[in-house]
Amino acid sequence: MVVRAQVPPHRRFPPLRFQTTIHLLPILDSILSLFVAFILGTLVGIERQFRQRSAGLRTNTLVAVGAAAFVDIGQRLAGDAEAVRVISYVVSGIGFLGAGVIMKEGLNVRGLNTAATLWCSAAIGAAAGSDLVVEAVLITAFVLAGNTMLRPVVTWIERSPVSQASTEARIEVRVTTGSASLPAVRRHVIERLQAAHYPVADIEVTEHGDEATEVAAVLVSTAVVPREIEAVVAELLRHPDITHASWESSTLE
């Protein structure tokens, strides 16, 4: 007589993969991390939404929650070492998202502050995902302070009169001469500027027909004294082969 051992029902099939990952305390830890990231990201996003920025409430919240989720998953699967590696990928990956909100219009660049805020939202999420709740709250406080408390300071600086002698800019000295006199005039312009202690970084020549040629001397980026540059321009105008001379300044990007 053959007696077959009875296999308990719970041992007939191996447990499913997801069953082995269900543990109450780790799940509660993940819920806390995502909840903190959601709340703090929302606080940053509300400020951005009030300012009518392209990356507003939902974007900053999702960036914070997404960063927290990636870091939390890495930590759950392989510990703190893997979480650190995931954070490095989050830092580099958020750069592509930030680049999407930066726009250049002529000499003006818009969206840099919005991109920086998204970067900070990712840092908030990474801290929350790493269970560094206090650090996440501190980052949020400093981000909000930077976007709100520093605004009056920026406004005051922008409304203050700008001194050319204290700012660095791209300075161009332009003269117009005939094509036949171009070599001598170009050499004369360089010599006069160097004598005034304004070294020339580049010379740009533009031909306007057969008779007129414009020479633009681009100075090395430096602070300028308008009175000194105007004196050089007045001296250049006294040259017999120069019919027009002027200078212009543009801010560096």
Automatic annotation (TrEMBL):
<protein>
    <recommendedName>
        <fullName>Protein MgtC</fullName>
    </recommendedName>
</protein>
<dbReference type="Pfam" id="PF02308">
    <property type="entry name" value="MgtC"/>
</dbReference>
<keyword id="KW-0812">Transmembrane</keyword>
<dbReference type="InterPro" id="IPR049177">
    <property type="entry name" value="MgtC_SapB_SrpB_YhiD_N"/>
</dbReference>
<feature type="domain" description="MgtC/SapB/SrpB/YhiD N-terminal">
    <location>
        <begin position="34"/>
        <end position="154"/>
    </location>
</feature>
<feature type="transmembrane region" description="Helical">
    <location>
        <begin position="20"/>
        <end position="43"/>
    </location>
</feature>
<dbReference type="Pfam" id="PF21770">
    <property type="entry name" value="MgtC_SapB_C"/>
</dbReference>
<feature type="domain" description="MgtC-like C-terminal">
    <location>
        <begin position="173"/>
        <end position="247"/>
    </location>
</feature>
<dbReference type="InterPro" id="IPR048640">
    <property type="entry name" value="MgtC-like_C"/>
</dbReference>
<dbReference type="GO" id="GO:0005886">
    <property type="term" value="C:plasma membrane"/>
</dbReference>
<keyword id="KW-0997">Cell inner membrane</keyword>
<comment type="similarity">
    <text>Belongs to the MgtC/SapB family.</text>
</comment>
<keyword id="KW-1003">Cell membrane</keyword>
<keyword id="KW-0472">Membrane</keyword>
<comment type="function">
    <text>Virulence factor required for growth in low Mg(2+) medium and for intramacrophage survival. May be involved in regulating membrane potential by activating Na(+)/K(+)-ATPase.</text>
</comment>
<dbReference type="InterPro" id="IPR003416">
    <property type="entry name" value="MgtC/SapB/SrpB/YhiD_fam"/>
</dbReference>
<keyword id="KW-1133">Transmembrane helix</keyword>
<feature type="transmembrane region" description="Helical">
    <location>
        <begin position="86"/>
        <end position="103"/>
    </location>
</feature>
